Give the backbone structure.
Amino acid sequence: MHTMWLLLTTSMLYGCSPVDAKSETEDLSDEDADETPDTDSGSPPDVTDQCVTPTASDHLYPPYPEPPDECIEDFWDCPFEDDYALENPNTVCNITEGFDSDGAIQEQFWEAYNYSRDYFGAYGPVYVYFMGPTSEESNEDIWHLRAERRAVVDACYPVERQVDDFFDNPYGSEELDAANSGNGGYFSISGNSGCNPLMDLMMINPRLDEVRTITMHEYHHIFQVAHLRTHDRDSDYGLNSWIMEGQATYSAARFGDETGWGYNFVDIMMGMKGYGGNVSPEGIDAFLEANDGFDLADESYWDRGDFSAAAVYYQLGAWAWAYLVHELDGEVDIALKDFIHDVPSMGREASFHLHFDRTMDEFFVEFATFTEGSDEEWRAILE
Ligand SMILES: [Zn+2]
């Protein structure tokens, strides 16, 4: 049985970082849980730019619907229409009861979210789940609502079982456990079936000092996922990990500097080379030292269980985009937006050739040569 949880684990995660720096958020654990935000019980949660704690009346089921007579067998393989994410470009946010009760983290989240939405455009529907350790009951409630929203109503596989599977998904449990524990920030975007397209933005235990740059990184993924025709990263109509994570890491570093919400762009980029930084404890230099070259298009670094995925997809990926922006004489919008925008209509290979005037394979050879240069040569392309 092709169940939802399996698909979730295999194909839909565009996480911020697989080995994210541990965040200490214990200071949130003793918050006053009495300040329950008012919820407009009964009405659909269509508010944007504020986060609401859901109540039982917000749930879609029970009663659970039966599969329709002409149901969809392979409900995960529904195609994505071009511009599917423009039809309902709304954002809905739910938050754990009592979490961030003074609203300080949410305020910075929306500041960065709106900044990124202005730059990349509005897409959706996006469900933001702002979760923390202040109420396990509330987290369970949010989880149920999330599962209901993701279920494909027209599938032959019953909605009730899709919802149950979502709870049984070991990967998902990890997210729920993380929310309840209060440890380690956890951030990701996950897409869904083309028969029920939506994007989940998980903001689990965000820290005030990191929330804006993380939000910029994740919104970049929203833009990317809005332009996928498939979650298959090897497909010409999907996006490889070096594209997804490399672009998002590059843009958060660059725009974080420009807005003053992050650190110095050159310092972050050189830091990823020299010692790693917040994505991993080790950097590009250590990876290149230990490996005989690298292949950006190889998706198997995820399986290594060390910092290889961080080094290749996030760090070398970010540098690959810095290199391409440099080759475009600083035309960052072409690299980050136009290239992605044309993927659904022509495929990524053709779009790459159109916007960068070389094939992706030609670029890989060129970039590999660049990485053999000195620190000064690396730094020079950032200017
Ligand atoms: Zn990411």
User: Anything to note?
Assistant: Residues 4-225 form one domain. The longest helix spans residues 308-327. The beta strands are 13-15, 51-52, 91-95, 126-131, 186-190, 199-204. Residues 14-16, 217, 221, 245, 248 surround zinc ion (CB under 6 Å).
